Amino acid sequence: MRYQLYYWPGIQGRGEFVRLALEDSGTAYDDVARGKGGKASSGLDAMMAMMKGAGEKKPPFAPPFLKSGKIVIAQVANILFYLGPRIGLAPKDEGQRLWLNALQLTVADFVKEVHDTHHPVATGLYYEDQKPEALRYAEGFLDERAPKYFGYFERVIDKSGGPYLLGRKISYTDLSLFQLVEGMRYAFPKAMKTIERKISKVVAVRDRVAERPNIKAYLASERRIAFNENGIFRRYPELDK
Q: Is residue 62 part of a domain?
């Protein structure tokens, strides 16, 4: 099976959580909207057409979404729940898979709050139009919410016996945890130095993932889009403490 991943071409964003799973497992896929050989624009057009319902009885609301044969799966956690057992990044046991999905949904909650540090009022406004609100939101996020999320994952790893969230075997949510740490280090380097002092197990997962052969190759390749101020994790020094 060769999958088609649909996501915005110039940012990591939420699509990166799916890319990491596909890359780590060595799964064949096409990053459709990025295209090759001048096909990027047609791929982006196809993505937009699918969201508008062209040829789809069940159109996705927004990217990322994954096409697997005739099936279209939307939402990051839903995509990974589908992919996980097929690409060796989720257990076969139903209870464990549901637990893993709950952890991935917690990642999604975290990502939403990261986004709101620079767009706390409205996504339709520029960051410059909501800077006072962003500063206030970011202060609470860095003081309370980010440590709470990372602390939760730290406890999960500890209770599993480690070194990963489910214990001895890596899962797609461990790859997502890697992305959370990387993104937070980019957006809030000062705050993360303080937060990381209390989450050694989370940092160890990040380090283990970074050394996995396929991930290491991916990170060094042109396929890995650099963090930038159009994505979820944005570096605005005035928001960091």
A: yes
